[in-house]
């Protein structure tokens, strides 16, 4: 979707939400509401930079992400390479629609995120 396209919601529908989490700074990042909400709404979570983080730290981060979202498929990327195929990332996780409903909209229907981010 194109940011600022007021008809994007009419023209397109999403099948899958993919969220990337930095494998080095992800634990600190998850302390923000916006980051935690993105993980909670995701169908797929990709932990990036696993080649720069030690295995125990990556395992601990994945455990924390699992608490936020038990349904999402967890993937790890190292050296910029992801083992999952694009078609695998397009499949929604079980219960995706109901899980997203509470995280992505305020009662008025406006997107919820940090003020510095843009939604479409």
Summarize the structure.
The protein has helices spanning 8-11, 26-29, 33-41, 55-68, 86-89, 96-104; strands at residues 18-22, 44-48, 73-78, 81-82. It is α/β, with parallel strands linked by helices.
Task: Summarize the structure in words.
By secondary structure, this protein is α/β, with parallel strands linked by helices. It contains 6 helices and 4 strands. It has a domain at 15-92: P-loop containing nucleotide triphosphate hydrolases (Rossmann fold, 3-Layer(aba) Sandwich). Helix content is 37%, strand content 15%. Helix 3 (33-41) runs antiparallel to helix 6. The longest helix is centred in the middle third of the chain and has 14 residues, at 55-68.
Notable characteristics:
120 residues; 4 strands; Rossmann fold; alpha/beta
What gap, in angstroms, lies between the N and C termini?
Answer: 7 Å
Residue share in helices? 25-40%
Strand percentage: 15-25%
The average pLDDT score comes to 78
Category from helices, strands and their pairing: alpha/beta
Classified in CATH, the superfamily of the domain at 15-92 is P-loop containing nucleotide triphosphate hydrolases
List the helices and strands and how they pair.
Elements: H1 8-11, E1 18-22, H2 26-29, H3 33-41, E2 44-48, H4 55-68, E3 73-78, E4 81-82, H5 86-89, H6 96-104
Parallel strand pairs: 1-2, 2-3
Antiparallel strand pairs: 3-4
């Amino acid at each position: 979707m194109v940011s600022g396209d007021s008809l994007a919601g009419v023209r397109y529908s999403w099948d899958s939400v993919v969220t990337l989490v930095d494998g080095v700074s992800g634990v600190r990042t998850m302390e923000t509401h916006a980051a935690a909400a993105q993980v909670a709404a995701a169908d797929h979570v990709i932990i990036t930079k696993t080649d720069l983080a030690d295995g125990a730290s990556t395992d601990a981060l994945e455990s924390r992400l699992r608490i936020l979202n038990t349904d999402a498929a967890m993937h790890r990327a190292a050296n910029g390479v992801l083992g999952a195929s694009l078609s695998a990332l397009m499949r929604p996780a079980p219960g995706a629609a109901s899980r997203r409903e509470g995280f992505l909209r305020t009662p008025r229907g406006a997107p919820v995120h940090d003020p510095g981010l843009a939604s479409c």
